[in-house]
Specification:
The chain is an all-alpha fold. It contains 22 helices and no strands. The longest helix has about 35 residues. It comes from Bacteroides faecalis.
């Protein structure tokens, strides 16, 4: 166990270093690109007045699959003789001090030294970077607040959409006051104006206080079990009976997703993300051209695996002992999951048809990512069947601890990062058409061989079944 986690952490650090190098490269390139794009502005004015809000929106989105809310770890601490508010303060402080909040500095450090040093010196660069870090902290606590509210009521998704969408809309207005404010804010950081720093810290303190109040109320309500859900309609999904044992497990998967609080929350979040990105790609000009349409297409197709499929066996950990009493039941379960989520990929494909009609995305590109997701990306996600050992409660959300080991992080990063890098390389070397055809062939290869690699995953799981079952039992609530 220790060696496995150590190896996983080492590989994840190597991959993080690779992404850091990627950001350093972009930070260097943007210093000259902004000069050519807006010759009347200094590059740091373009960064602060226009690009910064898009970076913060991307940071918000990246936190969804990779950052868990610290409130999910609160339950074990409640047993300690410590005030609950102090525990929440500790968890919020730990979230703010997370290294994730420093990662964007790999982009801003080279950019700052190339553009700011000649006007404000090294002290100006350091002061500016401190200000950027404080803004990222604001984004961190803003994400925690939105994520907590969205977990309770899906309609809260409109809050971050309205916030980032509204600011983006205001930025495109000529002589935008928002753009002017952000430029002045950046200049204040570079000049070391204490008032700008105090104002930023005040916003962090306000978000801290709001998070504290909201999280406290939700935790008390959940621990007291004050909200009970009632099943208004029960469907037997009898049409699955014709598919035998695999059909029964397909029916079990749908019931789990649609009847349990945690699963329904994940499913709602998935649908909201798919609909939001599909609408942005189809009906907005913000992300036309360049790499963004491809990024959105990959995210749309892979979001099922990134949010739900990577938790395979963790939900089943609640009743795995009963399933293990039947020979071959896990193999049928894996096949059922693969079929259900493969069919589910029709949803993002259908929602991106307007983008195809409007020439925002090619039909070949949509098909290539559709089959590549069902093939290679699902192959990566289902590998976590062997490594997931922690039970996720079916009907608790805020107080549930969900930790990821090194192997889980690596597989998640590979499933999302490898397609981006592979497509970029193929597109640069051979062009867009050859890149999509190559991805289509790779995806079809993994789909046709799915009976073999699903059985391989099953056999590896069975070799570790006693160790995994012990982990599931120990982590049940």
């Amino acid at each position: 166990m220790y060696e496995e986690n150590l190896a996983g952490k080492i590989i994840s650090y190597v991959m993080a270093a690779g992404w850091a190098g990627y950001l350093i490269f972009f930070g260097t390139i943007l210093a000259s690109s902004f000069t050519n794009m807006v010759p009347n502005w200094e590059p740091y004015h373009v960064m602060n007045g226009i690009a910064l809000i898009f970076i913060l929106a991307l940071d918000f989105l990246l936190r969804i699959p990779f950052q868990k809310t610290p409130t999910q770890e609160v339950k074990p601490y409640l047993l300690l003789p410590v005030k609950k508010k102090r525990i929440i303060d500790f968890l919020l402080l730990r979230s703010g001090l997370s290294l994730f909040n420093l990662f964007w500095l790999f982009l801003f450090v080279p950019f700052s030294f190339l553009t700011i040093t000649k006007f404000f010196g090294v002290l100006g660069v350091i002061s500016y970077l401190i200000g950027i870090w404080l803004i990222i902290l604001i984004n961190n606590y803003w994400y925690l607040l939105c994520r907590t509210l969205i977990n309770e009521r899906i309609w809260w998704i409109l809050l971050p959409v309205a916030f980032y969408g509204g600011i983006t809309f205001l930025l495109i207005i000529p002589d935008s006051p928002v753009s002017s404010f952000l430029i002045d804010l950046g200049d204040g950081y570079m000049e070391g104006n204490i008032l700008y720093f105090l104002g930023t810290i005040l916003i962090i303190a306000i978000l801290w206080w709001i998070n504290r109040r909201v999280i406290s109320g939700l935790i008390y309500a959940e621990l007291a079990k004050t909200n009970d859900s009632k099943i208004k309609h029960v469907s037997d999904y009898k049409f699955f009976e014709r598919y035998g044992e695999v059909g029964e497990y397909m029916r079990l998967e749908l019931k789990m997703l649609l009847r349990n609080r945690s699963c329904k929350g994940l499913l709602r979040n998935t649908f909201v993300l798919i609909i939001m990105f599909s609408c942005v790609l189809s009906f907005s000009n913000l992300y036309d051209g360049g790499f963004m349409p491809t990024f959105i297409a990959i995210y749309n197709f892979s979001v099922f695996g990134m949010i739900i499929l990577i938790r395979t066996m963790s939900f089943e950990g609640n009743y795995l002992d009963g399933m293990m009493s039947r020979k071959g039941s896990i193999l049928s379960l894996l096949r059922a999951k693969y079929y259900v989520y493969s069919i589910g990929e029709i949803i993002p494909f259908t929602l991106m048809i307007p983008a195809i009609i409007m020439n925002k995305l090619t039909l070949l590109g949509a098909f290539s990512w559709f089959f590549y997701t069902i093939g290679f990306i699902y192959f990566c996600n289902l590998q976590l069947v062997v490594y997931n050992k922690q039970t996720i409660p079916l009907n608790e959300k805020v107080t549930t601890r969900q930790s990821n080991g090194g192997i889980q992080i690596i597989i998640s990063l590979c499933a999302f990062g490898v397609p981006l890098l592979l497509y970029s390389a193929l597109n640069a070397l051979f062009g867009e058409t050859i890149a999509h055809i190559t991805l289509l062939i790779i995806g079809l290869g993994f789909i046709l061989s799915s009976p073999y690699w699903i059985r391989n995953i099953y056999q590896r799981f069975m070799k570790h079944r006693y160790e995994n079952m012990e982990g599931f039992r120990n982590s049940r609530q």
